[in-house]
């Protein structure tokens, strides 16, 4: 329904889109501020990396409940690298897909210990070479740990960016590249932070509150 509505409108020029994106970013900044926030609790880069691996198909709130105990039990990369697969599966069972997640966490931590001397690497190539780490996870690390401008495409960013008419793609990597073209670099990290908040409170997937949304005048996919 959204795609039909969007396609029926006159094609937006690049200048018009740039002006509309500017209004969207200004409204998001005004509503949510420009402070960087991470919704996954962590104290070290490797803790964040493990938390993000566990967050696949799981809520941040659930991951935070699990990691509160998990990071006390396994208090170092070495502890995770030497963990029993069956025991770690039990520890993270409630996050779902626990077998693959536990397997990836152990393999990832072994590589961090053996290949990177306990340091979480910075480049997208090094990060995505680790078990369980795709572009989304890598960009979370690059943005939150190294303050490297990066766009994280999660379910909220995918859905709302399409709704706002900033991409027609469905593949996360293609969406990332589309957004890199239309968003200024100083908002690449903020885009994920702002859109997660919007998606959880107003632009809710099952029942978007378009009538009270502060972006409705700049959203071609809004519901009537």
From TrEMBL:
<dbReference type="Pfam" id="PF10576">
    <property type="entry name" value="EndIII_4Fe-2S"/>
</dbReference>
<dbReference type="Pfam" id="PF00730">
    <property type="entry name" value="HhH-GPD"/>
</dbReference>
<keyword id="KW-0540">Nuclease</keyword>
<dbReference type="GO" id="GO:0003677">
    <property type="term" value="F:DNA binding"/>
</dbReference>
<keyword id="KW-0411">Iron-sulfur</keyword>
<protein>
    <recommendedName>
        <fullName>Endonuclease III</fullName>
        <ecNumber>4.2.99.18</ecNumber>
    </recommendedName>
</protein>
<comment type="similarity">
    <text>Belongs to the Nth/MutY family.</text>
</comment>
<feature type="binding site">
    <location>
        <position position="219"/>
    </location>
    <ligand>
        <name>[4Fe-4S] cluster</name>
    </ligand>
</feature>
<keyword id="KW-0238">DNA-binding</keyword>
<keyword id="KW-0227">DNA damage</keyword>
<feature type="domain" description="HhH-GPD">
    <location>
        <begin position="54"/>
        <end position="201"/>
    </location>
</feature>
<dbReference type="InterPro" id="IPR003265">
    <property type="entry name" value="HhH-GPD_domain"/>
</dbReference>
<keyword id="KW-0479">Metal-binding</keyword>
<keyword id="KW-0234">DNA repair</keyword>
<feature type="binding site">
    <location>
        <position position="213"/>
    </location>
    <ligand>
        <name>[4Fe-4S] cluster</name>
    </ligand>
</feature>
<dbReference type="InterPro" id="IPR000445">
    <property type="entry name" value="HhH_motif"/>
</dbReference>
<dbReference type="InterPro" id="IPR003651">
    <property type="entry name" value="Endonuclease3_FeS-loop_motif"/>
</dbReference>
<dbReference type="InterPro" id="IPR011257">
    <property type="entry name" value="DNA_glycosylase"/>
</dbReference>
<keyword id="KW-0378">Hydrolase</keyword>
<keyword id="KW-0326">Glycosidase</keyword>
<dbReference type="InterPro" id="IPR004035">
    <property type="entry name" value="Endouclease-III_FeS-bd_BS"/>
</dbReference>
<keyword id="KW-0456">Lyase</keyword>
<dbReference type="GO" id="GO:0019104">
    <property type="term" value="F:DNA N-glycosylase activity"/>
</dbReference>
<dbReference type="Pfam" id="PF00633">
    <property type="entry name" value="HHH"/>
</dbReference>
<keyword id="KW-0255">Endonuclease</keyword>
<dbReference type="GO" id="GO:0046872">
    <property type="term" value="F:metal ion binding"/>
</dbReference>
<dbReference type="InterPro" id="IPR005759">
    <property type="entry name" value="Nth"/>
</dbReference>
<dbReference type="InterPro" id="IPR023170">
    <property type="entry name" value="HhH_base_excis_C"/>
</dbReference>
<dbReference type="GO" id="GO:0006285">
    <property type="term" value="P:base-excision repair, AP site formation"/>
</dbReference>
<feature type="binding site">
    <location>
        <position position="203"/>
    </location>
    <ligand>
        <name>[4Fe-4S] cluster</name>
    </ligand>
</feature>
<dbReference type="GO" id="GO:0140078">
    <property type="term" value="F:class I DNA-(apurinic or apyrimidinic site) endonuclease activity"/>
</dbReference>
<keyword id="KW-0004">4Fe-4S</keyword>
<keyword id="KW-0408">Iron</keyword>
<feature type="binding site">
    <location>
        <position position="210"/>
    </location>
    <ligand>
        <name>[4Fe-4S] cluster</name>
    </ligand>
</feature>
<comment type="function">
    <text>DNA repair enzyme that has both DNA N-glycosylase activity and AP-lyase activity. The DNA N-glycosylase activity releases various damaged pyrimidines from DNA by cleaving the N-glycosidic bond, leaving an AP (apurinic/apyrimidinic) site. The AP-lyase activity cleaves the phosphodiester bond 3' to the AP site by a beta-elimination, leaving a 3'-terminal unsaturated sugar and a product with a terminal 5'-phosphate.</text>
</comment>
<dbReference type="GO" id="GO:0051539">
    <property type="term" value="F:4 iron, 4 sulfur cluster binding"/>
</dbReference>
